[in-house]
Amino acid sequence: xxxxxxxxxxxxxxxxxxxxxxxxxxxxxxxxxxxxxxxxxxxxxxxxxxxxxxxxxxxxxxxxxxxxxxxxxxxxxxxxxxxxxxxxxxxxxxxxxxxxxxxxxxxxxxxxxxxxxxxxxxxxxxxxxxxxxxxxxxxxxxxxxxxxxxxxxxxxxxxxxxxxxxxxxxxxxxxxxxxxxxxxxxxxxxxxxxxxxx
Length: 198
Description:
Layout: H1 2-20, H2 22-33, H3 38-70, H4 74-95, E1 99-100, E2 103-104, H5 111-119, H6 122-135, H7 137-155, H8 158-196
Antiparallel strand pairs: 1-2
Helix pairs in contact: 1-6, 1-7, 2-7, 2-8, 3-5, 3-6, 3-7, 4-5, 4-6, 4-8, 6-7
């Protein structure tokens, strides 16, 4: 019984961690926060993790009902997320940071695009819905908590990287990573369109 529980928990954790893929988000975080102080960057990461937690738990419990009520497909999230990321990449390439009009975004950056669609993207939201239906409430909740802890630890590793690069180096890297973000965006849109017309 315990062995089965641990086995299912392990599967749920590994699958969710692979889908969220926090390591792949490090370049995007560096791109979005390259000109910020450490305190502000930490604040954004905190907002990011809290937002991801809320999204994952909400979708685990009532995700299916939300989507069916509004007639929204998970692939619509994918396409919309791709468009959003592409706009972010354009801002990074032209301004060196993420701005909205004349306002530079601060803690809000932890909500969009870091929390959604990068970490708690369509894949992760769909997965927690399936996990709830497959493994039940306990394993789903535990797997989300464990993955959030691992994700936070990985994202905090950007600080040593910033110390190594310095502000000038970080600004250069920001421009380079903007291209990577654009590639992520295009792939989101392509995958979403493929699934819509599949």
